[in-house]
Amino acid sequence: MDAPAKKKLRLATATLAGCFGCHMSFLDIDERLFDLVELVEFDRSPLTDIKEVGPCDIGLIEGGLCNAENVHVLRDFRKHCRILVAVGACAINGGLPAQRNPIPLHEILSEVYLTEPGLAHSGIPNDPELPLPLNKVHPIHEVVKVDYFLPGCPPSGDAIWKFLTDLLAGREPELGHALMHYD
Amino acid sequence: MSKTFTLDGKDVPFRDGQTIIEAALEAGHYIPHLCHHPDFKAHGSCKLCTVKVNGRQTASCTMQAAEGQVVESETEELNSERRALTQMLFVEGNHFCPSCEKSGDCQLQATAYHLNMMTAHYDHFFPNRPLDASHPDFLLDFNRCILCSLCVRASRDVDGKNVFALAGRGIKSHLIVNARSGKLADTDFSAADKAASVCPVGVILPKRRGFAVPIGERTFDKQPIDAYVDTRIARKEE
Fold first, then answer.
1. Is the ipTM of this complex over 0.90?
2. Which class is domain B1-99+226-238?
3. What are the pLDDT digits (tens) for A46-67?
4. What angle, rounded to 10 degrees, do the helices at A157-168 and A32-39 form?
5. Residue-range domain boundaries for chain B
6. Residues belonging to chain A with any Cβ–Cβ distance to chain B shorter than 8 Å
């Protein structure tokens, strides 16, 4: 009797307040993507264009939290993913967007939309469709429980591959010196 | 015959008057440390070099080596405490490695790698610490200060200038510049000062020289910090 086909794990990815650099780095695993799709089925991700996350085994989150929608998406991922991974500097410590944190939000919005010479001065955007910005940018572990952290700006394709293959094989992910980077 | 203590089971020779970390680093054994510098007297503030001596915790930079001591350092217990201390240093300042010129050459970052710090874990303070760009040749980015006091000690003890000081107490401790204006431009600080090159993180940076060494070729890209034991000792031997 043939062994039953191994069930593929479901993997979802999302970008919050990030630059999609971690997703680009994810694509840098190159032809190893073929090996990966033998092991996982993609759920919500920019790669599939699925908009809502379903029940998943692994969720990869790029980016920190800079607005209300980010918080909504993150909580949705936490609810649906057995293992949630903070990928990249922004998800882990807020990263570049968090460098606005020492400056009060109204000062930033005023400078960009009202006072800075050379800009359009069209007024601070107030469309109900726009998610409201948070006063500060937060790393995701300040809002939900995060199971694993994969640092880097971005983590290299090799680091992402090492992390995922460790995780999928049931090992504790271990990057080691060459792949461990905060930049 | 020289006197010895054991560090994680290995014999380490020492001379009278040496601290545990001095003897260990000299013998090529790494003990994590940030405020300790081989050229300076102990400060004992960062506590990263905490070891167990005969079963009791103590800072190895202030504890004198003694015959027959049994010292433990690379244990999961000590390293997890060191990791927690390092995480606190990360959240108390603004340590954004991707935009820091010291990245790859930074003792704090390399120590965090050694301790397998995947996240800063605690809630970030995101303090507001304006830069001091007043000096023509040097920039001060206080966001990255870990209060190791090496610039204070170098300026006072080596340069004889007293340019820097630590002010405030406890969580309010912070680095200041000793000038009425508080600005580096109003001191006699210069590029030739020991204090100009002693910062283990990215606070005291020369202007007009940024990201000069490509990623992959920086100090701690090539080897982890424990392989160097202490980069500042390696330089002395060259």
1. yes
2. alpha beta
3. 999 999 999 999 999 999 999 9
4. 30
5. 1-99+226-238, 100-225
6. 86, 89, 92-96, 98-99, 101-103, 136, 138-139, 141-142, 146, 148-151, 153, 177, 180, 182-183
Question: Can you read off the two tokens belonging to residue B26?
Answer: 């000299």
Token reading at B220: 């701690």
- The SS3 of residue B132 is strand
In chain A, the domains with their CATH numbers are 9-101+134-168 (3.40.50.700)
Mutate to test the interface with A, among B114, B124, B143, B222 (most CBs of A within 10 A): B124
pLDDT per residue as tens digits for the range A90-134:
999 999 999 999 999 999 999 999 998 888 888 999 999 999 999
The span from the CA of A71 to the CA of A68, in Å, is 5
Burial tier of A115 (Cβ tally within 10 Å: 0-12, 13-18, 19+): exposed
- Specify the fold of B100-225: Alpha-Beta Plaits (3.30.70)
Written in H, E and C, the secondary structure of A21-66 is HHHHHHHCCCCHHHHHHHHEEECCECCCCECCCCCEEEEEEECEEE
